Structures are given as structure tokens and as C-alpha cells.
Amino acid sequence: MERVRDLASEKAAVIFTKSSCCMCHSIKTLFYELGASPAIHELDKDPQGPDMERALFRVFGSNPAVPAVFVGGRYVGSAKDVISFHVDGSLKQMLKASNAIWL
Amino acid sequence: MNSTSTHFVPPRRVGIYEPVHQFGMWGESFKSNISNGTMNTPNHIIIPNNQKLDNNVSEDTSHGTAGTPHMFDQEASTSRHPDKIQRRLAQNREAARKSRLRKKAYVQQLETSRLKLIQLEQELDRARQQGFYVGNGIDTNSLGFSETMNPGIAAFEMEYGHWVEEQNRQICELRTVLHGHINDIELRSLVENAMKHYFELFRMKSSAAKADVFFVMSGMWRTSAERFFLWIGGFRPSDLLKVLLPHFDVLTDQQLLDVCNLKQSCQQAEDALTQGMEKLQHTLADCVAAGQLGEGSYIPQVNSAMDRLEALVSFVNQADHLRHETLQQMYRILTTRQAARGLLALGEYFQRLRALSSSWATRHREPT
Q1: CA-based, 20 to 30 A from B34: which of A42, B27, B118, B204?
Q2: What is the pLDDT of residues B217-254, one digit of tens each?
Q3: Eight-class DSSP state of A40
Q4: What does UniProt give as the signal peptide span (chain A)?
Q5: SS3 B234
Q6: For helices B18-38 and B83-129, what crossing angle results, to 10°?
Q7: Of all helices (H) and strands (E), which one includes residue A39?
Q8: Residue B129 to chain A, least CA–CA distance (Å)
Q9: pLDDT by residue (tens digit) across B58-101?
């Protein structure tokens, strides 16, 4: 859990993914399109991956555990939440507020 | 269970070829009628005719005379009664005339049957779209040909048929009230109902995707012109915005800006989902082609591909979620009256696509 928090606040935008997860790929692509360059942590490549996956599920209710998106160190949500925030424009505002993008 | 299932596939699959069989059969009966025609009589009156000739009742001209018995009769009698030649010739002419009339009537009858068949085919198509094939309670689909008998899909097709009917009704209602006078509270409840109706479709699709995601993705439940625009089991929200934008009432500058931003957001989200789908296709192809191709045993490959495919359902749901959120956001941007006009325009756009599909489907079948 500590490790999730540490990694999540390391950068303005952080996404926990798995290398095999295609929806994660979509969410990453969306962030790149918005001009952000999020830190990507692939849980299936990390020795502590399973622990972090459990933490994401338990603490943030992220189900499925990935993708799990953090902006400005705060949990934004899963793919569904990210799309909602993107459509109503608030994702962009969050990214601006935490200096993940400037425009 | 398998015997029932194999039983059940042919009606739908072979449906396309059935007309060919029909025509084949008619062709044969046509041939046999032609051969009857050379005798100038339909089957059922051959015998009385022959009897009459045997009895030398030659005044009878109502039936044909060109068949073999007639010929025999004619040759036998000419030497004795030369004037009979004229009578025979007249009878032959008469018989030939009648034969031509019968042939004409027969061809006309064939033509009518052809039109009837086309009509039946169209009805069958329509019924199929409304999901009138019988579900038989088989719940396994391990052999992959089961989308026709999956009860979840059968229920979805039925529900979708009702859904379209209800949508048509709502469009009519919106059209009527927008032409008349209606207060904003009533209009808002109509608009909210129409929105809920779309959300209901997303809910239906989500449970259908659980039953058979390939069926939902294929768009088989939609008409062909609608399928042409298919993107992950439905329409691209950005396409719809593009189509609808000129049909809204006058928008304020702020509204225009909001709608443009929304369109851009939609496009970005669509691109992102499309790229995820592409990755899914790549990994699936890699999965299926893993190991040595051609060695004959591929159960592990198929199993691991099955696991990958699970992700497909989440893409259909996510795409519908994007559609859902886009509708909501439009409603936030627009006034109630503008939203009502927008929903009317959207509904009529779908109606026109459905009309286009059926016109296109019947274009070659018009009698020339």
C-alpha cells in the first residue's frame, strides 16, 4: 500500500497497468493524446505487483484493479471514470491543476 | 444437446439458400409442364381426351390434339377422309393457340409466385430482425455456432425489436409536440424519457455482450446501412455530433464552443478505444498463432485466446459508456427545447438509415 502511494505521487499523472491489458493501453493513449506523459507502472512486471493490485482493489475499490489512474497524487478512478471525466471536461482541468499539462 | 443444436442451425443459416431450392423445384415443375405442353393438355385431362379420340369423337376441339395418340389417329384417318385434314389442321391451330395462352398464364403465375417469394423473404428478414426465431433453452456455446440459439441473444433481439418500435413512437410524439405548444416541464419529461430509452439500449447491449459479445460487435441486430457506420458495436458519438450539429436550433457562442470541445473529446476517446482494440487484435492473433502452426494440437492456444477475448466485453461496455456520457453532456450543454430537437433529429437520422437499408435490400427485386 505504501508503495502504491509513493509511486502514485511520484509524478503529476500516474497509471497502474498490466502489460497484457488492452483497456490500459486505451487509457494510456488517451493521456498521450491530451499531451500528458504519465508514469506507467506495470503490475505484472513488478515483484510487488500482486500486493499493489490487492491494495488498489481494497483501498480504492478499483475493480478491475487496472487501469488505476492517479492525477496529482489523488485517485481518479478506473477506465470508466476516466472516460466520464474526459467527456465532461474535468479530466483536462485536473491535469492542468496538477501541472501534468499546460495548455 | 448437440443433436438439437445442429438441428437448429440450418433454418437460419440455410435461409439464404432456400429461395434457390424453391426456384429449382419450380424449374423442374416448369420443365414437366413444358413436356405436358407438347401434348397440349395438363395431366389430369389426358385420359378423357384419349378416350374420346379412341371413340372417334373428333368434333371435340376443347382439348389439344398434337400428342402421339392424335398423330396416330390423324395418319390413320387421312387416307379415308381427305376433308378431315382441313378439320385437323384447324383443330391443331386452335390447340396451339390455347397452348400459347396456357403458357402465358403459366409464366404469369410463375411471376406472381416470384413476387410472393420476395415478399415472404422480406417478411422473414424482418421477423428475424425482431428475433422471432425460437429460443430452445440451449445455454452452451462451446462450438461457436450458437449465436442463433443463445437464449440471451434471442431475448436481446426480441427486446431490440420492441425498443425500435418504442423509439419510433417517441419520435412521432416529439415531432408532434415540437410543432404545437407545450410547456417546458412536459417537454423535459419527454426529453428525459427519450434519454432513458437510449440508456436502456446500453443496458440491453451490456447483458447481450455477456451472452455473446461477437453478436453485439457484429451489428447483426441492426440494419445494413446502420452496420456500415459500426464502431465497437454501435455508432461513433463524434460522427453523430457531426451529423446533428447543423440541425440544432441556433446555438450561443458558448454552446458552440462546448459542443466543439465535446466532439473533440469524443474523437480522442474513440481513438484511444480503437487503439486498445487494435492491441487486443494483435495479442489475440499472437495467442492463436503461438507455438508451431501445423502440428495439429492447439488446445492451449485456443484456451489462452479465450482468456484474451474476455476483454472484448469491456470494450463494448466502455464504448457504450462513452455514448452514454456524450448524450448526458449534450443534455447539459443544450436547453430543453434544443435537446428535444436534437433527439428528434437523432431519431429521424436512424429512421432514415433503416429506410435506406430496406430500399437498398429490395432494389434488385423490383419487377422490370
Answers
A1: B118
A2: 999 999 999 999 999 999 999 999 998 888 887 899 99
A3: E
A4: none
A5: strand
A6: 170
A7: strand A39-42
A8: 31
A9: 444 444 444 444 445 545 555 567 788 999 999 999 999 999 99
Chain A interface disruption, residue of B262, B313, B325, most A CBs within 10 A: B325
One domain for residues B194 and B331: yes
Residue B131 has what pLDDT? 53
Range of the domain at B93: 89-132
Q: In terms of domains, do B173 and B318 share one?
A: yes
Q: Is B332 within 8 Å of chain A by CB?
A: yes
Domain boundary among B102, B132, B162: B132
Domain total for chain B?
2
Three cell numbers, residue A62: 478499483
Residue A46: C-alpha distances to residues A67, A81, B279 (Å): 15, 25, 22
Q: Where are the alpha helices (DSSP H) in chain B?
A: 2-13, 18-38, 46-54, 68-78, 83-129, 151-179, 184-218, 224-228, 237-244, 253-288, 299-333, 336-361
Contacts of B279 by beta carbon, 8 Å cutoff, 6+ apart = A22, A25
Chain A residue whose CA is closest to B287: A20
Residues B108 and B208 in one domain: no
Smallest CA–CA distance from A30 into chain B, residue: B272
Residues of B in contact with A83 (CB under 8 A): 269, 318, 321-322, 325
The full set of domains in chain A, from first to last, is: 2-97 (3.40.30.10)
Query: Rounded to 5, what percent of chain A is helix, strand, coil?
Result: 50, 15, 35
Mean pLDDT of B317-330: 96
